[in-house]
Amino acid sequence: MPRHFLTGQELDREQLLALLARAHQLKAAPYSSDALAGKSVALIFEKPSTRTRLSYEVGVSELGGHAVVLRPGEMQLSRGESIADTARVLSGQVGAVGVRTGHDALIEELAAEGSIPVFNMLTELHHPSQVLADLMTLQEAFPERPLDELRVAYVGDGNNVARSLALLGATVGLGLIVASPEGYELEPGCGGERSNDPQAAATGADALYTDVWVSMGDEQTADERRAALAPYRLDDELLALAADGAIALHCLPAHPGEEITAELLYGKRQRIWDQAENRRHAQKALLEWLLAAD
Ligand code: CP
Ligand code: NVA
């Protein structure tokens, strides 16, 4: 059975911590692994991407493999070829496939019908690839403190990034509170606490994390989202409530002046640009793990 990474819950605590430790090693020595030598990896993007495409494509190359970027509009999928048949064909050509799509069901079906590892590069409900880099960045920022001693306040829309942070955070015991306005809350039960009070959530936190207010696919409700989420902006005032030495995180792309101020986004207390770079290192460790079962 191939390994998959659809929600991130495929990894237990020990596996996730080992993957993060490996990510730090790969960051220190980017060309030290040829785990993908002679292998190809398909990357299917149904939605736009800057970081995810760059980090996976460059990461595959650094591991000695070859990345094939595919857009559904250029595939027979767009002319009605089934996901099951696409999965069979992919399984005969590449060692693994990553997918960015709005439909969680699509990656589940690809995984069920194919015989190769499938990994999630963002779906409507999950963005676990992002959270590998987030956890790695927290470890870098707080090298003396294990993840289960850190408190993160995610302030904003209870979306795919928030859900993955809650799920993978729960695996490693991260202290997490997700603060969102009414109607935009992350459902309970997937990890962490919930709040409707951004100030209370931020108080004493080691990191404040936010994401866009209008995710891909949410454009039709953009105005009402901006109005509801306006009190949930990450700014210096909110960070002042957090613990001494607290950092700001954002998965990007950012809208300076909307969910985060430009002062924080480009300031001294953010780790946001490290977080973006860490996507590559963390995902390389993931690719090694996914293909290790070969
Ligand atoms: N954070 C993230 O996934 O960025 P992209 O949409 O640019 O890939
Ligand atoms: N929540 C955002 C994340 C972008 C990386 C979206 O789904 O568009």
Structural features, described:
- The protein is α/β, with parallel strands linked by helices.
- It folds into 2 domains: 13-127 and 279-291, Aspartate/ornithine carbamoyltransferase (Rossmann fold); 128-276, Aspartate/ornithine carbamoyltransferase (Rossmann fold, 3-Layer(aba) Sandwich), CATH 3.40.50.
- The protein is 41% helix and 14% strand.
- It has 11 helices and 9 strands.
- The chain has a 5-stranded parallel beta sheet.
- Helix 1 (13-28) crosses helix 11 (272-292), helix 3 packs across helix 4 and helix 5 (128-141) crosses helix 6.
- The termini are close together.
- The model has no long low-confidence stretch (mean pLDDT 97).
- Phosphoric acid mono(formamide)ester is lined by residues 49-52, 122, 130, 251-253.
Kindly list the characteristics that best describe this protein.
about 290 residues, alpha/beta, Rossmann fold, 2 domains, 5-stranded parallel sheet, 4-stranded parallel sheet, about 40% helix, globular, binds phosphoric acid mono(formamide)ester, binds norvaline
